[in-house]
Design a protein that fits this description.
This protein is an alpha/beta fold. It folds into two domains: 174 residues, Rossmann fold, CATH 3.40.50.2000; 159 residues, Rossmann fold. Helix content is 42%, strand content 20%. It contains 13 helices and 13 strands. The strands form two sheets. The chain has a seven-stranded parallel beta sheet, sandwiched between helices. Strands 10-9-8-11-12-13 form a six-stranded parallel beta sheet, with helices on both faces. Strand 1, helix 1 and strand 2 form a beta-alpha-beta unit. Helix 8 crosses helix 11. It is globular and about 60 Å long.
C-alpha cells in the first residue's frame, strides 16, 4: 500500500507516538509511507523509510485549505481529528483513525456542538473508521449508531518501557515518595487544574515525605513546601528512568480515547492514580481511580500510597504484571490489517 498521514503537528504526545509507531511499522513491512505535517518537533524516532513532507501553507487555515484542495498520490490518507476527513475526502480517499472523542477537547458548548455536527455528517456517510479502543467505539455507537468500525486494542512498547531505576534519582529522593506528573499543552482535557488543586491540598495538609517530578511544561518550584523538580521534555530513555525511579504516576485526565502514559508508567513500576476517564482504570486492580475532577478523593489516594509502604509495594508489583496485557506489537499488526481491508474494499473507493 501507499499510505499518507496528514497531521498539523507531530510532537511528543501519546497520539503522536502511535502515529510514529504505526508509520514505522508500515514502512518496515514494505509499504510506502509519507507523513504530511505542518509542525514537526518530536523526540520519537521516525524510521528512515518514512517520508516526511512539510505542509507549505502558513497557519492552521492554510493547513486545512491545503488538505482540502490537494490530491495526494496515496492509496489512502489517514487522519485522526474529525475536522479533516470531510475536507480531504473532496479529492482523496480518507480513513478516520479515532484516537479520542474530539468533542472532549473543548469546554465551550458551541464548539462542542460544531464537532458533534462534523461527527454526525461523517458517520451518516457510513464510511469505515479505525478506533483505538473498545471504549471509544462504544461512545460512537451510543451517540451515532456507527457501524463498520475496526477496533484495535492499543498497547505499549515493552522494549521501551520496563524497570530501569536511575541510581542518582533514587539517592536524591532519599526516603521520599516521588510523584510523576505529565504537564501537557492540552491542559483542560488532561486535568491540569485538577492536578494543581490536588497539589495545593497536599501542600496545605503538609503531607511529609513526597516529591513532585514534572515532565513537560514547567511547574513553579517555589509554589509548594515539598520539593518540585522539572525535567522538561525528555527522551523515552530518560522517561523510563524517571518512571522507574518514582513511585506514583498522577494522571487526572478529563477524557481519554485510551491512555498510553499510565500503562507505560505501570510497566516501569509506578502505581497509577487517575480518573475514570481512563477506559481500563476501573477494571485494573493496581490503579487507584477517582471520579473526574474529584480533588479530595485523588488526594486521599496519593496520601495513602505515601504513608502506607505495604500498599505501595504490593500495587507496584501488580502494576507491572497488569501492563503486560497491552502489547504494541499486536496493535501494529491490527492497524496494518485494518488499513489493508479498507483499501481493498471497492465499496469505499474514492471516485476522482
Amino acid at each position: 500500500m501507499d499510505i499518507g498521514f496528514y497531521r498539523y503537528s507531530l510532537l511528543n504526545r501519546g497520539g503522536d507516538r502511535l502515529i510514529v509507531e504505526y508509520a514505522n511499522h508500515l514502512a518496515v513491512s514494505g509499504h510506502t509511507v509519507t507523513i504530511h505535517v505542518k509542525r514537526l518537533n518530536t523526540m520519537f524516532t521516525i524510521h528512515p523509510n518514512v517520508h516526511i513532507q512539510k505542509v507549505p501553507c502558513p497557519g492552521k487555515a492554510g493547513f486545512l485549505f491545503y488538505g482540502a484542495l490537494r490530491r495526494f498520490c496515496h492509496d489512502i490518507m489517514v487522519v485522526d481529528i474529525i475536522h479533516l476527513p470531510l475536507l480531504l475526502s473532496i479529492r482523496n480517499r480518507v480513513i478516520y483513525y479515532a484516537q479520542a472523542d474530539d468533542m472532549e477537547y473543548y469546554d465551550n458548548a458551541l464548539l462542542r456542538k460544531a464537532i458533534d455536527m462534523l461527527y454526525t455528517i461523517y458517520f451518516r456517510a457510513g464510511k469505515p473508521i479505525i478506533s483505538m479502543s473498545q471504549h471509544l467505539t462504544e461512545i460512537f455507537n451510543k451517540r451515532y449508531a456507527v457501524h463498520n468500525v475496526h477496533t484495535i486494542k492499543t498497547g505499549i512498547d515493552h522494549a521501551t518501557f520496563y524497570p530501569e531505576p536511575d541510581e542518582e534519582l533514587i539517592a536524591s529522593k532519599k526516603r521520599s515518595r516521588a510523584i510523576v506528573f505529565m504537564a501537557r499543552g492540552d491542559a483542560y482535557r488532561k486535568g491540569r487544574d485538577t492536578a494543581l488543586g490536588v497539589f495545593e491540598v497536599l501542600n496545605k495538609d503538609a503531607i511529609a515525605g513526597l516529591e513532585l517530578w514534572v515532565c513537560g511544561n514547567f511547574v513553579d518550584e517555589n509554589r509548594y513546601s515539598f520539593p518540585v523538580r522539572n525535567f522538561g521534555v525528555v527522551t523515552d530513555i530518560r522517561l523510563r528512568q524517571i518512571l522507574s525511579s518514582a513511585d506514583i504516576f498522577f494522571y487526572p485526565s478529563r477524557h481519554e480515547g485510551f491512555g498510553l502514559f499510565p500503562l507505560e508508567a505501570m510497566a516501569c513500576g509506578c502505581v497509577v492514580v487517575t480518573t475514570d476517564a481512563i477506559p481500563y482504570a476501573r477494571t485494573t486492580s493496581s490503579i487507584l481511580t477517582s471520579n473526574v475532577g474529584d480533588i479530595h478523593d485523588l488526594t486521599r489516594s496519593i496520601s495513602t500510597l505515601i504513608m502506607d509502604e505495604t500498599v505501595l509495594k504490593n500495587l507496584k508489583t501488580r502494576a507491572r504484571e497488569e501492563s503486560k496485557k497491552y502489547d504494541l506489537s499486536r496493535s501494529k499488526i491490527a492497524f496494518e490489517f485494518a488499513l489493508s481491508e479498507i483499501v481493498k474494499d471497492k465499496k469505499y473507493a474514492h471516485r476522482h
